[in-house]
Amino acid sequence: MSLFTKCPSCGLPRNPEDAENPCSLCGWFLGVSESLEKPDELLPDEPEPVTVTPSIEPQTERNPFPKMLLALPVAVVLFGVIGFVVRKQTRTPETPEIVQNVAPNGVEEKPVDVPPPKKEQPPEPTPKKPKEEIAAFPGNNPDIKMPEVKQPEMKMPELAPPPKVVVMAPPGAGEVLDGENRVLNRPEGEYELEALDGLDNVTIKGKVRTLIIKGMAGRSILDATELQAEKVVIVEGTTGECELKANAVKEIDFRGSAIGASKVTLTCTEGNIRFSTKPEAGNEGSKIDNSAKVKLTAKNVEFHSRIDGGSVVEVNAPQGVVKFPNPTTDEVSGSRICGGAKVNINATEVDFQGWLDGGAHVRMTLNGSSKLSFKEMRGGAHLFYKKANDSDPEPKVSTGEILGGAQVKPNE
Fold this sequence. Notes:
The protein is mostly beta strands. The protein has 2 domains: 62 residues, no CATH class; 230 residues, no CATH class. It is built from 2 helices and 22 strands. The chain has a 6-stranded parallel β-barrel. Strands 1-2 form a two-stranded antiparallel ribbon. The chain has a two-stranded antiparallel ribbon with strand order 3-4. Strand 1 and strand 2 form a beta hairpin.
């Protein structure tokens, strides 16, 4: 026998004693008395049928509690949203936020006013210029001419020309040692030229440290003016009608004699030219004789032997010294000028230790603070001198013996 009955509407088990009350789940209830199911031992064997008429009541009379339970969460959320919106709209930025500070021991501390955050102010817009000001700017108005600004002229400094690059060939390369036109490439070496005679005609170019010329005779010609040589040595001198032209940088040593109708032209602008061999018994030294013609250009010049026999000698050493250093005796001629020889000298200082005699004719041009000295004149020799410039001081003249109609005087 069952002690419970079911709700006719939702099937919820119910106590028969609560049959008159509404169902706790769906709210259904009986409108009239209903026979309750009794236990089998209390009911008769054949119960009488009972007709149950359900109460037709309007739905509004049912219990609304379940629906309220479902609507309650929705109402809570809705009221929360409305309260948040209303609170946000009613709160102003000037109202400071109050923060409750509670210490760890539970004691409430005094509220602290928190200032509202500052709002960043947007930058102020740049005021636009009126059209009149824009038009007045020279760059925007073609009628307004800008003043011309002259830029200073830039002058580039003058640069020195680049140094010349000289490519040196290896020693001996490109040399031509035979024939009339010869080329030397011996900047640290020497070259010995064979003796020239007859109609030999030789030209030498290139570079060499020392050029050695054995000698010249006949009508031979040697031109070494384009040869770059530090030193030139003439061993046996010149004779006949030969012609010698040579240049050197440091020294020219003429060891032989220049005789006959030979012509000698030597240039050594940075060094000395020396007719170096002294006369001795059986050796007349580096004499110039028998109408020879000699032209010399150098810093300093020395004649260790005589100039004789109508020879013509021209010496150009304007800033240097010209010396005739060897004295003349009855046995040795020394550095003597005689036999009608003619000598022209341009120098700063001239010294004659040998005799001037036998109709010698000597003219001198003296430069700057000049000096002139001689040891003895005789036999109709003439010595004339003059200043190179009128502004130069008077030369210092030191005279020796003047015999046999010799003359010493300034050139008029």
